[in-house]
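FW: tagging you since you asked about this chain on Friday. Here's the raw sequence from the shared folder, copied in full. Didn't touch anything.
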Amino acid sequence: MDFRDNEPIYMQIAAYVSENITLDKWQAEQKIQSVRDLAVELQVNPNTVARTYDFLQNQEVIFNKRGIGYFVSADAKDKVKSYRKERFLQQELPEFFKNIFLLDISLEEIEKRYDAFKTQNYQA
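HL: got it, structure written out here
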């Protein structure tokens, strides 16, 4: 995983976990990787992953079965989408709108490229 400098690493890992949930790679009620295993996979300090899991647990996306591990919450996908949608609408969309205005990019061009992106990346 390539980390960006402009966002805390634990939040980037939370986005990674959330994406796996949203794309149904990690199903509701499924056990997820331990803190240590995910830290090794992503080559980060286990404390960083622990902070990520604490954040996601506070968001009720995952839950801990003491002594067993972390699991995806039953409604995790809805919670992830709701949180990420609100964050996108508040933080990223205004910057996106500013750029398409300044660069004079039409909504038709955006729609065409969005459709191509979906086809290339998310449709079998």
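FW: The chain has a mean pLDDT of 95.
HL: agreed, and The helical segments are 9-22, 35-42, 46-58, 76-102, 107-122.
FW: great, closing this out.
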